[in-house]
Amino acid sequence: MELKKILMVDDDPSIRRITEITLTKLKGWEIILADSGARALEIIPTEKPDLILMDVMMPGMDGVSTFTRLKEIGCDCIPVIFMTAKVQNQELEAYEAMGAAGVISKPFSPSDLPDQIISIAAGWVEQGRELCSKK
């Protein structure tokens, strides 16, 4: 899976900025930013990201609700990686059961973030998950 465009969804502006700088600088990926689940749902049809990084805990529409809505509107072929401090086995199992590509724990190491994303995306492909076609 070749990653070129990533949508970062987080209500914390500092997390969005750190992620954008890190992934742009280290990998040259195009980073699209959204400050809420609702905004992400508006952006996805036009931007068509290769992958979505999404905070779990956000006001309004949280990450889990946004992920559920993505599946309902037929965007379940975009891998979603949750970013959260909630990384107990129960939560991890629940995210996996929902169909998330993976989880990156917060706080995260900016220098390790690209490799974590690449590893999770590779696992998504190895599982034989269908990817969205870019039309």
Entry summary:
The chain has five helices and five strands; from the N terminus they run βαβαβαβαβα. The chain is an alpha/beta fold and 135 residues long.
Task: Outline the structure in words.
The protein is an alpha/beta fold. It has one domain: 3-Layer(aba) Sandwich (Rossmann fold). Helix content is 44%, strand content 18%. The protein has five helices and five strands, in the order βαβαβαβαβα. It has helices at residues 13-27, 37-47, 63-72, 89-98, 113-126; strands at residues 5-9, 30-34, 51-55, 80-84, 102-105. It has a five-stranded parallel β-sheet, with helices on both faces. Strand 4 (80-84), helix 4 (89-98) and strand 5 (102-105) form a beta-alpha-beta unit. Helix 2 (37-47) runs parallel beside helix 3 (63-72). The radius of gyration is 13 Å and the shape is globular. The protein starts with a strand and ends in a 9-residue tail after the last helix.
List the helices and strands and how they pair.
Layout: E1 5-9, H1 13-27, E2 30-34, H2 37-47, E3 51-55, H3 63-72, E4 80-84, H4 89-98, E5 102-105, H5 113-126
Helix pairs in contact: 2-3
Sketch the major β-sheet.
Answer: 5 strands, parallel
N-to-C span: 16 Å
Report the sheet-strand fraction: 15-25%
CATH architecture: 3-Layer(aba) Sandwich
Number of helices: 5
Helix content: 40-55%
Number of strands: 5
Order of helices and strands: EHEHEHEHEH
Give the C-alpha Rg.
13 Å
User: What structural category characterises the helix and strand content?
Assistant: alpha/beta
Oligomerization category of the chains in this entry: single chain
